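[Meeting: bench + compute handoff]

Bench side (C.D.) handed over the final construct sequence. Compute side (W.E.) agreed to return the predicted structure before the next meeting so the bench team could plan truncations. Sequence as handed over:
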Amino acid sequence: MGAQDGEPGHDPTTGFFNKLTFSYMYKHIGEARRNGDLDAESMGMPADNYAHVSLIGFALALQAYDQFASNWATEVKLKDTDGGKPSLVRALRKTFGWHYMLGGVFKFGWSTFVITGAFYFVRSLLAHVNGIKDGRLYSTTYAGWALMAGFTVDAWFLGLCLQRMGFICMTVGIRVRAALVQCVTNKAFRLTTVRADQSAAIVNFVSSDIQKIYDGALEFHYLWTAPFEAAAILSLLGYLTNNSMLPGLGVILLVLPLQYIFGYKIVQIKLANAKQVAKRSAILQEVLPAIKLVKYYAWEQFFENEISKVRAQEQRLNYWNSVMKVINVACVFCVPPMTAFVIFVTYEFQKARLVSTVAFTTLSLFNILRFPLVVLPKALRAVSEANASLQRLEEYLLEEVPQGTAFVKPAKGSAAGCVIDGGVYHHPSNPNWHLHIPRFEVHPGQVVAVVGRIGAGKSSLIQALLGNMVKEHGHSSVGGRISYVPQNPWLQNLSIRDNVTFGEGWDERKYETTIEACALGLDLQILPQGDQSKAGIRGVNLSGGQRQRVNLARCAYADADLVLLDNALSAVDHHTAHHIFDKCIKTMFADKAVVLVTHQIEFMPQCDSVCIMDEGHCVYFGKWNEDAQNLLGKLLPITHLLHAAGSQEAAPKPKKKDGPAKSESIQLTLAPTSIGKPVQKEARQESRITAVQSFWIYTYNGNYAIVFGCFMFFLASQTSRQISDFWVRWWVADEYKQFPAKGVQDAAATKFYALIYLLLVGLFYIFMLFRGATFLWWVLRSSENIRKKALHNVLNAPMGFFLIFPVGDLLLNFTKDQDIMDENLPDAIHFMGIYGLILLATTITVSVTINFFGAFTGALIFMTLLMLYIYLPAATALKKARAQSGGRLVGLVAEVLEGLGVVQAFSKQDYFINEAAYRTDITNAAVFNAESLNLWLAFWCDFIGACLVGVVSAFAVGMKDTLGAATVGLAFSNIIQMLVFYTWVVRFIAESISLFNSVEGMAYLSNYVPHDGVFFDQKQQDGVAKSITMPDGQIVPASSKVHVVVDDAALDRWPATGNIRFEDVWMQYRLDAAWALKGVTFKIADGEKVGAVGRTGSGKSTTLLALYRMFELGKGRILVDGVDIATLSLKRLRTGLSIIPQEPVMFSGTVRSNLDPFGEFKDDAVLWEVLKKVGLEVQAQHAGGLEGHLVCLARAALRAVPILCLDEATAAMDPHTEQIVQDTIRKVFDDRTTITIAHRLDTIIESDKVLVMEAGELMEYAPPSQLLNNRDTMFSKLVDKTGVAAAAALRKMADEHFAKQATQARR
């Protein structure tokens, strides 16, 4: 029994007439008009299209993947036979070939009906109009009406055939998609390890290659039928004109191969251009997420130039691609009149006077030949790309999967826990490094801690327990279900609840216990949608501590027997770490076997056993005692003890539900790509401009004169084409009385009519070339000008802009939207103009020749507008649903591959394979309904076209004596074009309107994004605030805060000494946000070392943002060497400061481009000297991978300025690297004024002074030793919170530093 209508899995196509007329789409059309959006999950499709069996209620339906898998398995077996080569195409052909061939039969039917209409019905009706009374079938009046009815039915049937072909190709294409996605994920999700390049290739298969295979399935029948259609038309012309068609055959034989050549060339250019597009996208993907760093370094112009260089190559290829298309279109549309010319001239000179039955039957046949010739290059491109994708996919599916694991997963019922005895392991990719474990065991109810230095082999031990290491010797056994927290937290772009439950059944009590034990309760109160808040891509919406705790909650909720925690407490503060250890590890995991990798030494006494690792060897396993403590003391330096104290991250405060929005604390993180707070969504909607505005921007950037000229050439080319058709009518009727008598040949008269016809055809061709050239000039110029302005604006936008506009959306604007503006949109507008004018000219021509048809022209226009009115909302909604569902599928595959170790540890491979199949079905349902909507439109447009054919035929029969054969012939040769092109006109109009969404986004960025140095206000369309509310509540115009910028040349030596003064500084991230800095005043003397401390959100990092003018001040001023920084240009200011950021970013390129992108240092010796200072000389000489943190040091060292800022610079480093970096900083930057934003107190305890921040206010500013002498100071309390041992060590370091300074001062 099937699913109910409206539920996933139901088949909406049941019923013959429902399927024939696509009436199942009315539900979606109505819903889209009412709601604007459609839910892909509630859409249905035929049962055979599903990959996910549980979705459907058709128990007997053999699913797409099941059918394909058995055939592919047979192919794979051929590898074992001599000379056998498996073929993916053959497996697909065996599975779906017969059904797909049926689509070819319908395409053949379309060809038959359209040629029958053009040849038999047009010719017979013209013979009837001519009044031939020779007793043949079409000679009687009754036969005329029968021919009219037959022509109408023929016109309707040819439309039905094309729709059936489209439906079959679509369903087969969807089944192929379902089968291949399932096949790819079945293999990918079971890989033991996955390389970065392998992961990228698998994601590309799902996101791109399988779509190309689907597109190829839609287009393939056009490719192979085109030559047969051309041959059939030529054969009929041969029958009609005998030898006269031979010159025409020559023209066709010249043009048809050209279509394949043009198609091939376009494919080659597109493949070459894809590399440039990928290169441009890669730069943008590096730059936009790191935009804060780019602004710190003032490198905006460099990256703008780099992107422009790549874009120049891309534009060159775009130009040649467009030239090919223009010549191709001109050839295709010039074939009918040019071939007709040579046939007509040959016919008149060799055979007899040209008559209407010959002339207009010939024109009709050639007019229908245009359609297969137009789609041929597109079909060739689609099939070529599909073939290349199939080859890549086949290679991947045949690739041998590595099978090295340390143990075979135990059967259910094995004893929980693990035991290793004399184990020696190596990593599958590095057999030279060994892990030696003489003895290790953990049983239910025990907690075993694993400790040691960075790189000692702690995580490798966890990987050995997970089965990801190759065992060489020894015995190991692992039993029970496993749960695992990785060292680097892994999250899906789902709600926090879904991340925690991880496919397990819902248990509210267990869930609440888990949330409390993992200290997530307060976080869920703060997050905008509680546990329904999205984690974002790679957990971007959460802090590092939150990401780790959600991973821990997932582990706890799984309720497994063996719990593996790889450094699970490293990113949480001291208080939270103790809460988790007590409530989660010792309580929730009380009956579990727990392995805890940690640096927190204070937990050792509470563990049952301790495993101490060093250089890949387990040097101690047993109880925590004095011997273990002494051994560990030798291995770990004091910095590890301070690491154990945790970061400064304080427990989050719950959000006040009744407080004003203004009071909310705003953190400076780039806007997430998945969800945002309501204010962000509002801003996104306000930021968009209307379609009319974007159209004028698009036109303006292309130049109004060029656009006007293009429009005139469009009109001129179609006008010349229509006049040439009228000229044939006058030629047949001898309008200018050149022939001596009716039916008598005359060479002079033939030359008169033929030469003028040739002139008109020549003009048509020339106008088409000019039409294409001006159109090409317009769209390429417009696209490039908009891109240039948009990129310049975004790179130079205020940081406030990036808080509102998600970086993911901006990347889509500059990649996907830009590609649409370069190719898809120009193609849609071009063909909309061509086909639209053909349709308009057809209706005008028929209305002029048959006056009464004018009434039907009005009805046609009304029906066209009605079709667009009905079609557009549903098409837009389905396109959106298709993109969103497809994005979720690709996102799932990328996420699972990134977290494959976690998925395997939890034994969730089958769950995610099924989830991928489920998401594939949702995507395919959206694809099915989107294509069905196009077919629904085609059904009604073809029906309207058939009715118009019937109307013209009725006029021809009823008014044959009044109209005459030449008039009727002209009407028929034109109306038959409507059958072929009417649906496409409506489709291209709709597609052009839909694709203009891309222009809207880019046009907004190019015209309405302000530059740095203004107060950003997302509520204003141009982004510039009109007024500012001061701290005292006074509202002042934003223009009153603008400072006069001094001449850069006057500040050549600025800054010279590096003293910094903050005077009553007030700053906010957004105009509707709380003040992030409140009246901050302090002074830093030349060469002084100052550390800034405080809880998360206290404002310590904001002081750097204010210094760099990432945000303008609401009140107060900042002086550097006595100069108000608001009077400097941003480039001058930022190049006068140096910074070492928290996250090191290495941009693609050379070492030189990463250090000196503008080439300011011509002497290589300077660069080598800097590399030597920071310890990178050897790495650079050997062209090895450079250490990112050290590159950032080198950048700062190269910029010889007296001020250095450290923005939590060593937070992401392991202790060993941190020690190197800290030593280098002390050695290289000793004479600079240094501001250090602290992530741990030991990094600033030896500073000259400490800034203590709280809620944006400066609470304390004094030397550390002075603050520590008073136990009541905030700084002293922060030190005490790190734990007794760590606090004592910190106080000792501060005292020693103070004593050292005092000694130096006395000298």
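W.E. noted at the follow-up: The longest strand covers residues 430-442. C.D. will use this when planning the next construct.
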